[in-house]
Amino acid sequence: MLEYACMREIQAPDVTRAVAELAQRANFELGGDVVRLLEAAREREVSPIGREALARLLENARLAKDERLPLCQDCGIAVVFLELGQYAHITGGDLYEAVADGVRCGYRDGFLRKSMVARPFSARINTGDNTPPVIHVEIVPGDRLRIAFMPKGGGAENMSRLVMLKPGAGEHGITDAVVSAVRDAGGNPCPPLIIGLGIGATAEKSLEIAKKALLRPAGEPNSDVETAELERKVFDAVNMTGVGPLGMGGGVTAIAVHAEVYPCHFASLPLAINLQCHSARHAEVTL
Amino acid sequence: MTGLKVGLPLDESVRKTLRAGDAVLLSGVIYTARDAAHKRMAEALEKGVELPFDINGQTIYYMGPAPARPGAVIGSCGPTTSGRMDAYTPQLLEAGLAAMIGKGERSAGVREAIRKAGAVYFVTYGGVGALLSKAVRKAEVVAYPELGAEAIMRLEVDDFPVIVANDMHGGDLFSEQISKYRRG
Questions:
Q1: B81: nearest CA partner in chain A
Q2: What residues of B are in contact with residue A182 (Cβ under 8 Å)?
Q3: Residue in A104, A156, A145 with CA at minimum distance from that of residue A279
Q4: Per the confidence metrics, is the pTM higher than 0.90?
Q5: N or C: which end of chain A has fewer CB within 10 A?
Q6: Distances in whole angstroms, Cα of residue A134 to Cα of each of A48, A103, A148, A149, A276
Q7: Is 90 exceeded by the pLDDT of residue A60?
């Protein structure tokens, strides 16, 4: 085990610069992992309308990267995952403010759409700079700060689901719940999807790990064999629904299923479902 | 891009010929409106106040764009989820709205209202906003500027690609296509 003699300092303005850069990169450049899965999807899609849609998605990704245009007009709510080493010390400003400033600058300078509204159940006034972000912090070993930026679109996030299954529901219960969520969502979350699943823990923790599962390289199976097998079964079941690319019918409804698992109370089996649209945007850096 | 070239506004004679699943390239004027603008238009209709544009025979696109870079006509501009507009749509169809563009399915009530009004619901490609911005020739805010990206804009489009999702004869792209590819 590594021992650290003293705290390593990380300047808050460096965090701001990093977040601003990640916000733009994530919105302009679709990851190579996602592009490869979409290309493979276009090859195996049986519906002509579906194949045409997949061709458009790929053309859009090339254009967005070349011209630094947002892949989607919905540049998302800024979800930021921080993994803060316990020997890292943030100086020169407040960490959360530094992240929010990064969002502010990145969205302004990148001509990204600002979609955040304050007073959500009443006046719904646009905050004007896409803040505040939603920040998740995890304390980890080491002296680094890892920042993962995920612009999450409203259309896909709206189709999220939390199901408190019976403890004995097992694989079948999970698969059925995911299939019904995907079928009900239809074209709304912009399939083909990456499906994030959080299984176990508590209500709120399952939702958090479902979202964090979306940060995994697209299509990479869980390192646990049993969980990877569940991912495969859910993947096959979802792709039998016929929902297809953009809900216009076809054989490719999901391009990946990522599940994360956490032990839970013996009375429970929480299942969180977080749907990610085909524009599966995220970017990361380690300071 | 391929499809039947059609001019806007859509004549009733053209709407009659459109069938769910047809690929169409639209050219002409469309108006944008999403959640907040729909709420305001519905309130205007309830109060008997005039709508901010003459809706008769027009096309509404459910979209709120990304900001235009300097020198560009518009930023990325793909469709948003149409279902959120379902509660307001029958009123607008009664007021003369002829066509809508968005993404995803409509409610049974809206599908029936489309049939009754002889209107058409098109879908375009969700998450393809950069590409779709290339089909927009002109864009100006015409109402509710304080709503920012949710303001009503008048767009002039050229060969804007859409697919007929719900036609005036009761045809439905989603149920027809999804049941075709459903297995098990």
A1: A188
A2: none
A3: A156
A4: yes
A5: N
A6: 39, 11, 12, 10, 17
A7: yes
Judge whether A195 and A243 are in contact, CB under 8 Å: no
Rounded-to-integer distance, Cα A135 and Cα A266, Å: 30
Rg (C-alpha) for chain B, rounded Å, is 16
What is the C-alpha separation between B171 and B164, in angstroms, rounded? Answer: 9
- Cβ distance of B177 and A64 shorter than 8 Å: no
CB contact under 8 A, B69 and A111: yes
pLDDT in tens, B44-62: 999 999 999 999 999 999 9
CB-based contacts of B36: which residues, under 8 Å, 6+ apart? A124, B144, B147, B150
Residue A150: strand, helix, or coil: strand
Q: Looking up tokens 């069938």, which residue turns up?
A: B19
Residues 6+ apart with CB under 8 A from B88: B38, B39, B41, B42
- ipTM value: 0.94
Q: A267 in helix, strand or coil? A: coil
- Residue A130 backbone dihedrals phi, psi, to 5 degrees: 65, 10
Tell me the C-alpha distance between A130 and B79, whole Å.
Answer: 20
By the CB < 8 Å criterion, does B146 face chain A? no
Structure-token pair, residue A242: 């016929």
Q: Which of B174, B128, B179, B137 is nearest to B158 (CA)?
A: B137
Q: Treating both helix axes as pointing N-terminal to C-terminal, what angle do A48-67 and A32-44 enclose, rounded to 10 degrees?
A: 160
DSSP class of residue B65? P
CB-count exposure of residue A196 (10 Å: 0-12, 13-18, 19+):
buried
Over its C-alpha atoms, chain A yields an Rg (Å, rounded) of 19
The number of beta carbons lying within 10 Å of the beta carbon of residue A144 is 15
**Residues of B whose CB is below 8 A from A110:** none
State pLDDT tens for residues A148-170: 999 999 999 999 999 999 999 99
What is the DSSP secondary-structure string of A15-70? HHHHHHHHHHHHHH---HHHHHHHHHHHHH---HHHHHHHHHHHHHHHHHHHHT--
Residue A193's pLDDT is 98
Q: Is A41 exposed, middle or buried (0-12, 13-18, 19+ CB in 10 A)?
A: buried
- Number of helices and strands in chain B (H, E): 6, 7
d(CA A162, CA A198) in angstroms, rounded, equals 9
